[in-house]
Amino acid sequence: MIRERIEELRRQLEYHNFRYYVENAPEISDFEFDAMMRELQDLERAHPEMADPNSPSVRVGSDITAEFRSVKHRFPMLSLGNTYSPDELHEFIERIEKETGPTEFVCELKFDGTAISLTYEHGRLLRAVTRGDGTQGDDVTANVRTVRTVPLRLRGDDWPDYFEIRGEILMPYASFDKINAEREAAGETLFANPRNAAAGTLKQQASAVVARRGLDCTLYQLAGDDLPFTNHWESLQKAREWGFKISDQMRICRSAEEIDAYIAHWDEARRELPFPTDGVVIKVNDFGVRRQLGFTAKAPKWAVAYKFKAEQALTRLDSVAFQVGRTGAITPVANLEPVLLAGTTVRRATLHNAEQMALLDIRPGDMVYVEKGGEIIPKITGVELSQRPADSRPFEYITVCPECGTPLVKYEGEAKHYCPNQGGCRPQIIGRIIHFIRRKAMDIEGLGEETVELLYENGLVRDVADLYDLQAPQLACLPRLGEKSADNIIRSIRGSVEVPFRRVLFGLGIRFVGETTAKYLAEHFRSLDAVMKATREELTEADEVGGRIADAIIEYFADEKNLAIIRRLRDAGVKFEAEARELASESLAGKSFVISGKFSNHSRDELKELIEIHGGRNLAAVSANVDYIVAGENMGPAKLKKAEKLGVKIISEEDFIAMIGSDEIPAANAAEKRT
Ligand code: IVH
What we know:
The protein is of the alpha+beta class and 675 residues long.
């Protein structure tokens, strides 16, 4: 009965997942989908013996840290010959047709992501491996399982028992923009382009992070021993029937003219696509002809990649401006004579940092090449030296902050200069306040960027704590603000003291402490006092907190000015503690645990929750501070070795439950978890 229901839910969820993500044609509402998913998760939790690594419920990922195993490819992952020139492309076609007679080509887009090889056995996803060096790559299966367009179980029943399918893991522009906006708010370095973001995400340690990043996967090549197809086109049509996402943009072309037309079309039309592409791949369709042509050492002779030229324009660099970010980071920005590039007028381009400028020897007055390549923000790629003015001199980078005059500093390992005057530099002060009031932080409505600037200009705010001292009449007399909006703003500020601790912690704007890190810190330490007291080592015991983040936290709390702000926020009633949990017992008081591996009767989150409600502490990594490791299946061998070396006790899930007597979680806590 239950097994049947679980199977039915899995089938339904797979189907609707496919309709939604692959075919873009959902049949049911998100609400209905979520309800089914919840039912499945509940049943799977209650019946761990029916667990399945390919159940649709794994799409949400987990916080098990992946240690990527290196896997040898059964069929090597080759690269492609590249060309930018139509003439070379025509030679490629002629060379082939001379050898084989007229033949069909399949033209496809060249997706600009990161290559992946998926192995299916008996219709189920067995493994996902990155390209690596072409011979062996990293096993990133847990992460790839969260990608909604990768089928975990295939549709139909006419697939080969064992085969590989290759394609590209892509990050659509929409996901890319969202992630970079979040990283910017957290003061983290941005991903330069969707390709880096996709590759970086695949190598993320926690698959739950991957699940949130909105990756996509398009497949373009099957590999296997005896595949039942005579040509590429047919093989991909079948793959589509099995549930894979296959590009809608592929075409069969029968002449050089048709190929040229395909390229010309997509060189323009790709701008409308929601994901990045950097060329067209032209492949011989017929597998017999492919066999006849064979391979070079690195690439097939039956395919070539024609790369689109990044669009370039030549224009004058009028001047260089310097932006100061919330963290004090200085970014040089080129002011350009407006020029048309890839359909938009470009007036500004990033110059990245001093090193980059020196490398290209960029000087105001120069004619410079501007490109919009894979990157979203246009960049300057070179200088037309033949047009350099005779009296030109090398550019001298600024040494003091353009906003406040403070001498700039450089931190080790960072390319950018920083203005260290956090407390007195206008854009930094305003930037921090704007960050604090963001929706994902204190969510203070009615206060936008302009109003914050207005408050600053009128001497009403100098730091985030000043917000809580504001009175409505002070606001009402400012330009553009009436009594009503003043009242609303004050009400919203006062109301923000109810915001949970994790969002307050995010709002403080500690370097590298983004939304997710703040959440983990809050869950682990439960109060600001505990975060402030923690040593570097203790800080890194929280999930996703590494040395760099720990250092930034310590630096933040070492600053007396920050401490003063925190005291005033505390007086205003801002929450510096997580909601108290209803304790079930104190039987684990003073004991620290690490959860490792997979468990049959409880999820990892449940075990963590149980540890905390019995007064124990969860740590992320094995160290001398750990009392017990609760070990499930597949506990990493490195962890095991370390635990044995340190003499940490290793106990099973059952031992652990016996230790606390009952695995019941008070309803109040369970409800809190869901929100
Ligand atoms: S076919 C034997 N088709 O380009 C060749 N590759 O430069 C198998 N790529 O590593 C590759 N879009 O990551 C093929 N439609 C497409 C592609 C594509 C992007 C990437 C792939 C490969 C690289 C080769």
